[in-house]
Amino acid sequence: MSADARFWNRIAPKYAKSKIRDEEAYRYTLERTRSYLGGGDSVLELGCGTGSTAIELARSAGRITATDLSEAMLEVGRERAWDAGADNIEFRCCSAGAAPEGPYDAVLAHNLLHLLPDLVAVLEGAAARVKPGGLFISKTPCLGEKRGSWKYWLFKAAIPLMRLAGQAPSHVEFIGIRTLEAAVERAGFKIIEAGNFPAAAPSRYLVARRV
């Protein structure tokens, strides 16, 4: 078991009880994502956590394969999906780089890309799993956009200390919007929608079509 799997397994109970920080932004991007899905679509979600987004989108897709490297997170997701009657979700324990093969109509990655030690490999893997013309939809905290500010340096200094105390995963990337979008496009996608929701962080929402 990887260090990150152990970390997320350990904090799963607390994570499951935490509230969404910006409910309005979450709901907006959820509706935007829903607008791109069809009732017969096969969807892969990378880093699904406790399954909240997959469950919200279940009625808008044919089948959702929700993956995460934390089995403890997935156990919460399975229970929530059962309670919600979302029987078209399959939860699979695996890393983003070892997700089930496609092809899928859409691959989702919400609040995940900044935590990956090999972003390029995962984006290339997502492209390989999407049907030609299919979609990659992601939302990523772009911590690099605060570069130079006191908040940036405070967070930059705090992460290693939090990691030593077992309060942060092994990798957190301070990625900027331009760097993120360039990586998505190099993987074989064309961005068709983009925005910051919420704007203050910012958390970049992208919809990209496989070319």
How would you describe the overall organization of this protein?
A hairpin with a 6-residue loop joins β6 and β7. It is built from seven helices and seven strands. Strands 3-2-1-4-5-7-6 form a seven-stranded mixed sheet, sandwiched between helices. The radius of gyration is 16 Å and the shape is globular. It is α/β, with parallel strands linked by helices and 211 residues long. The longest helix is centred in the first third of the chain and has 15 residues, at 3-17. The protein has a single domain (3-141, 176-210), classed as 3-Layer(aba) Sandwich (Rossmann fold).
Report the radius of gyration as a whole number of Å.
16 Å
- The CATH architecture term is 3-Layer(aba) Sandwich
Secondary-structure class:
alpha/beta
Strand order of the largest sheet: 3-2-1-4-5-7-6
Largest sheet: 7 strands, mixed
CATH superfamily: Vaccinia Virus protein VP39
String of helices and strands: HHEHEHEEHEHHEE
Runs in which pLDDT lies below 50 for 5 or more consecutive residues are none
How far is the N terminus from the C terminus?
36 Å
**Number of helical segments with 4 or more residues:** 7
CATH fold type: Rossmann fold
CA-based shape: globular
CATH class: Alpha Beta
Percentage beta strand = 15-25%
What's the total count of β strands?
7
Mean pLDDT: 95
Proportion of helical residues: 40-55%
Overall tally of structural domains: 1
